Amino acid sequence: MAELEQGRIVKVAGPLVVAEGLRHSRMYDLVRVGDQGLMGEIIEMRADRASIQVYEETEGLGPGDVVVSTGAPLSVELGPGMMGAVYDGVQRPLDALREQAGAFLTRGVNAPGLDREARWTFRATVDAGQRVEGGDVIGIVQENEVIALRIMVPPGLGGRITEIASGTYTVTDPVGTLVDDDGGEHPLLLMQTWPVRIPRPYRRKLSLAEPLVTGTRVIDTFFPLLMGGAACIPGPFGAGKTVTQHQIAKWSNAEVVVFIGCGERGNEMTDVLMEFPELTDPYSGQPLMRRTVLVANTSNMPVAAREASVYTGITMAEFFRDMGYNVVLQADSTSRWAEAMREISGRLEEMPGEEGFPAYLGTRLAAFYERAGKVATLGAPLDEKPEADERQGSVSVVGSVSPPGGDLSEPVVQNTLRVVKVFWALEDRLAYERHFPAINWLVSYSLYLDKITPYWRETVSEEYRQRRDTCMEILQRESELAEISRLVGVEALSPEEQIIMETAKSIREDFLQQNAFRDDDQFTSLATQDRLLRLILLFHEKAIQAHADGAPLKEIFSAPVRERIARAKYSTEDQADVFSQIESDIETQLVADGGEAGEI
Length: 600
Ligand SMILES: Nc1ncnc2c1ncn2[C@@H]1O[C@H](COP(=O)(O)OP(=O)(O)OP(=O)(O)O)[C@@H](O)[C@H]1O
Ligand SMILES: [Mg+2]
Hints:
The N and C termini lie far apart (about 85 Å). Helix 7 (about 360-370) packs across helix 8, helix 11 crosses helix 13 and helix 15 (about 560-565) runs antiparallel to helix 16 (about 575-590). Helix content is about 30%, strand content about 20%. The protein folds into four domains: about 5-75, Elongation Factor Tu (Ef-tu), domain 3; about 120-190, CATH 2.40.50.100; about 205-455, CATH 3.40.50.300; about 465-590, Bovine Mitochondrial F1-atpase, Atp Synthase Beta Chain, Chain D, domain 3 (Bovine Mitochondrial F1-ATPase, ATP Synthase Beta Chain, Chain D, domain3). The strands form five sheets. Strands 8, 18, 19, 20, 21, 22, 23, 24, 25 and 26 form a ten-stranded mixed beta sheet that branches. Helix 4 links the parallel strand 20 and strand 21 (about 290-295). It is globular and about 90 Å long. By secondary structure, it is an alpha+beta fold. The structure holds adenosine-5'-triphosphate (ATP) and magnesium ion. Adenosine-5'-triphosphate binds near residues 264 and 514.
């Protein structure tokens, strides 16, 4: 047990408190400040002088007030009860805060991350006498209808289980006992703790190969994210960051969602607190919260808690990864996190870097995004997948950025782009034009394209990649031709160029545009995305041919089948015949038949 060392405050500066007399404390130790025991964390140590960021309002604190070090770093509790929970940045459940304090935000409230009263049904999957190591699964708690928690031996622990029993337990009741090689006895609990600033250990990183399928066409087809990868989604005010992130949370093929919301406006609750609990999980029909953990920072919460929240969130995500789940973690918006860093750095009187952000902004962002990944976890393979020789899990990370004025050259965007491989650039011009998702297809990119192609070939089609590239070229050609046509009119373009312009328009309207609020448009499977491209490109090809055979452009462009192409995106997989019907209509309608009646 660490010494509970005491110090005294010498200075208070906003969220930052300086205390002396903490000779034995270390960086990142958690401390209790003042009579109310406010939570704080040491973020700078000089001899016995500690600078402490306090996670609660520091009003009323003053020189001479006592500071007690807990001798342990800021940690989260991991175990049953996290699903559906809404936490603040240091994992205090907002419900419990509200209940205990009456008001929404009071100080000195000590609420554990996991409910101490709740009882969980634990089914042991190992027997007494068995040897286990860190990461091994010892049993299952079915947390709710949707998700089962695999209860694991904490990393670093190993030995022989001397007793274990299925039954009903609270998170602090021992479910069994483990004796390590030195004879030390350790109770086995449903919960474990982990310091948030230290990545949870795994066996090794794996290379990424499968997509994080989102059902959002512009993302999946044009700028795909891999399971275990990281993406940045910058966008000005109201361009669609939150809607895009909610879509990913709802529809992606990750099993667990961790959402970190950093509030923007006044004393308002974040979008997260209001909207997220309303979302329905399309796969289970249950509330999405059944497999979601929310970390919410409203803008009236102290900046230090906001700074901590991304670490709290990603540590939770890693915990589910370690169970063998694919997790998607989203942070909205990371700009608020960076601003918290800037404020605290300013209080520490550190040398400011670009735009007042601390010089370590880039390092911190990189360290955060590098916690994304697909890994071979600690522990034995899962019983459910006996054919696998290791357990695999992943954390995919999507961070939104709200750069002032939508300026993509500002430091948070730039430093994020240095680490992530996918960039979805939201643009207010497109949002004004009601082209949603307002992701600019000429600026955005995914560096995962080549990695994903073999997967596409195997599971979607041989031609999907080629079709995607062809469409991208057509869109690029459109932007060049748009310049010319603005100057001299569309008619000045050659017929081939005019066909390109029409096809590009079709790609934009019939494929890229996707209404997140329309049930039949929210999600498109990869197979259907490919099918749509095939349709659009078939029209393109037949248009060129028909024109070469003498059909006038005007008639080609007004062929009745175009209406059906435009509606094809609302079709589902089991309507495959819809696609073949449209394809055959294209074939019959786009022929130059020497002026015969009927078709062109
Ligand atoms: N895919 C979409 N489909 C339909 N409408 C959309 C879509 N994306 C965004 N919108 C529209 O744009 C509005 C603003 O989107 P959103 O709240 O996601 O923006 P934001 O970038 O998060 O804004 P803020 O900077 O205020 O957080 C939405 O309320 C919605 O009307
Ligand atoms: Mg938003």
